[in-house]
Write a structure and sequence with these properties.
The protein contains eleven helices and eight strands. The protein is of the alpha/beta class and 308 residues long. GO terms for molecular function: hydrolase activity.
Length: 308
């Protein structure tokens, strides 16, 4: 092999390696590095913004902190019901947001006499963390919050209610061995597997010139090296197959971010007592504002059939 050919091949290899490295870091930055929600970020509906203000300004709101198993300081807002109650709702937010986005749900539960715990998932709000866990690491954090409640109130009856990534977190939590205090779960707009969701989101990017299988492989490697987990392990559909927690699966049929068919797949795979609700005309996590009567009515009828 001539020196010229060797230099050409070395140059091509270096360019390919450098390009792959740069692309991997770009994918990691946009997919796995948390971005904090600010008041300049517009909500998809005014009722969500009103809910933020409801939580932020609630006179009984308390800041609570615990340590995760990997020694991160995790934050949640706790709002007790006005009446003495052993019922608790852990309401779990989605990606690129924080616990305040769930104020609309907290207001409803508090009106029903249910205490509310609103965690900031790792990397968001006031919780420490340098990467997004997509429910995989977060499920263990929610377990810590569950035991935090039980330690305060051994008679607690706990409901998990998550939206989007919070819904995936909810489902992956139900795949764990849970204490009997956890009575029910609600998953609003969950993905079936993180790998599938990554692929769908990547395909929607303008200029996604690298073939999807290669992009996924590079994403999997860089996330494993930098965040320490395998995106293939973030699989709500595997978790629900092990779940014993009664679960309500909710999705909007007009969701363009997470495929509504994932909801029916999750429902079919679930081994637990289950119900299914498709909100017509609702986009991603819009059911609560597009059709609140149907949304909360379905939840009420579902919970009436559980021990919550």
């Amino acid at each position: 092999m001539s020196k010229k050919n060797a230099f050409v091949k070395l140059g091509i290899f270096s360019a390919l390696f450098g390009g792959a490295f740069a692309f991997s870091n770009y994918i990691y930055k946009i997919s796995t590095v948390p971005h904090q929600h600010t008041d300049d970020d517009k909500d998809f509906d005014e009722q969500i913004t009103e809910g933020r203000h409801f939580v932020r300004n609630h006179p009984d709101r308390q800041d609570m902190f615990i340590d995760s198993i990997d020694q991160l300081k995790l934050h949640a807002s706790y709002i007790p019901a006005s009446e003495n109650s052993h019922k608790y709702a852990i309401v779990i937010h989605g990606v690129w947001d924080n616990h305040e986005s769930n104020g609309i749900y907290a207001r409803h539960y508090l009106e029903k006499g249910i205490n509310c715990l609103l965690p900031d998932l790792r990397g968001f709000g006031k919780s420490e963390g340098k990467y997004i866990g997509y429910g995989l690491d977060d499920r263990l954090d929610i377990l810590e919050w569950i035991y935090w409640i039980i330690k305060r109130d051994p008679e607690a009856k706990i409901l998990l209610h998550g939206m989007s990534m919070g819904a995936a977190t909810t489902l992956m939590t139900t795949g764990e061995h849970l204490p009997e205090n956890v009575k029910a779960a609600i998953a609003d707009s969950a993905y079936a597997t993180l790998r599938e969701q990554f692929a769908a989101t990547y395909k929607s990017f303008k200029g996604s010139f690298i073939p999807t299988p290669i992009a996924l492989a590079l994403s999997r490697i860089i996330i494993y090296l930098r965040a320490g987990y395998d995106i293939n392990d973030a699989s709500p559909i595997k978790a629900v197959a092990k779940s014993e927690t009664p679960t309500l699966f909710i999705h909007g049929d007009d969701d363009s971010f997470i495929d509504p068919h994932m909801c029916s797949r999750l429902y079919e795979a679930a081994s637990c007592p289950k119900q299914y609700c498709m909100i017509l005309g609702a986009g991603h996590i819009e059911g609560v504002v597009k059709d609140p009567d149907n949304y909360w009515g379905k939840i009420a009828s579902f919970l009436a059939k559980t021990d919550f």
